[in-house]
């Protein structure tokens, strides 16, 4: 009795501990990277303009224009990219659907051969393929997963991709502009807030990686700070040359 209880406890402990990270990142990864992109690009734009000895008003207008242009560009790019990908997948699914309708026996044999190649006994592989192929929609889903590596019921939405990209980029790009909108008259509050946002984004990204939060945060802060510093110097050089 004690042995059975011990085995049950071990099984329960294994079940509770046998979890994995979300390797795809779900919604978190694209949202955070969209915000990070907005932060870095708009911070670099504003510091570049400020480095050219432009007025405060010009820096603010540049930041707002960068926010709008970048957000719309991201949304349009994501929509086109995801829509094109979805259309390609749907075209391939139509091809597979026609093959299943015209050559059901060949497709069933193909599925059985696939399972055999993965170590399933031939008789069992044929039986599994026969049962799975009895439902046309289920057969299509299985073939799509095995041959194309996709889930027909979980295709990405171009609209969702566009809206989420627009929102996350705009949110990130707003941070460097926010201090000016709240009355700041110098560049350094915008830089500090943007760098803090970059550290926070990097730390959040650590949720879907094996890195520690502080390493990921410092790495993103350093990269974003370097981009802002380089564009500030370039803005100064261009401003001097033009002036």
Name the descriptors.
0% strand, 9 helices, mainly alpha, elongated
Describe this structure in words.
Helix content is 81%, strand content 0%. It is mainly alpha-helical and 243 residues long. It is elongated. Residues 22-26 have low confidence and may be disordered.
Taking the alpha carbons of the first and last residues, their distance comes to 89 Å
Q: Sheet with the most strands?
A: none
Total beta-strand segments: 0
Distinct helical segment count: 9
Oligomerization category of the chains in this entry: single chain
Approximate strand percentage: under 5%
Judged by helices, strands and strand pairing, the structural class is mainly alpha
The succession of helices and strands, N to C, reads HHHHHHHHH
On the 0-100 scale, what is the average pLDDT?
Answer: 85
Integer-rounded radius of gyration = 27 Å
What would you call the shape?
Answer: elongated
Low-confidence stretches: 22-26
Helical content stands at over 70%
Q: How are the elements arranged and paired?
A:
Layout: H1 2-17, H2 28-51, H3 56-102, H4 104-117, H5 122-133, H6 136-148, H7 158-181, H8 188-205, H9 213-242
In short:
81% of the residues lie in helices and 0% in strands.
